[in-house]
């Protein structure tokens, strides 16, 4: 049987990205809304990031 790589980052990787000021997409379960939300730490929010979130 071959190994299958998960299409998502680990929680630890996502936390590190957030610490570094990067946006991450947090997704819910496919049995719920099956959607994702852009997330960024508050201290890194700029007008440009808000604009990106509103458009994308």
UniProtKB/TrEMBL annotation:
Return the protein name: 3,4-dihydroxy-2-butanone-4-phosphate synthase
Q: Name one GO molecular function term.
A: metal ion binding
Q: Which domain of life is it from?
A: Bacteria
The question of whether Disulfide bond is a record keyword is answered with no
> Which GO terms fall under biological process for this protein?
riboflavin biosynthetic process
Q: What is its EC number?
A: 4.1.99.12
InterPro entries xrefs = DHBP_synth_RibB-like_a/b_dom, DHBP_synthase_RibB
Known pathway: Cofactor biosynthesis; riboflavin biosynthesis; 2-hydroxy-3-oxobutyl phosphate from D-ribulose 5-phosphate: step 1/1
Organism the protein comes from: Candidatus Aeolococcus gillhamiae
What GO cellular component is one of the record's annotations?
A: cytosol
């Amino acid at each position: 049987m071959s190994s299958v790589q998960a299409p998502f980052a680990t929680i630890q990787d996502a936390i590190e990205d957030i610490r570094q000021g990067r946006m991450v997409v947090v997704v819910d379960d496919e049995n719920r809304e099956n959607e994702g939300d852009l997330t960024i730490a508050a201290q890194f929010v700029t007008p440009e990031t808000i604009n990106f979130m509103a458009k994308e």
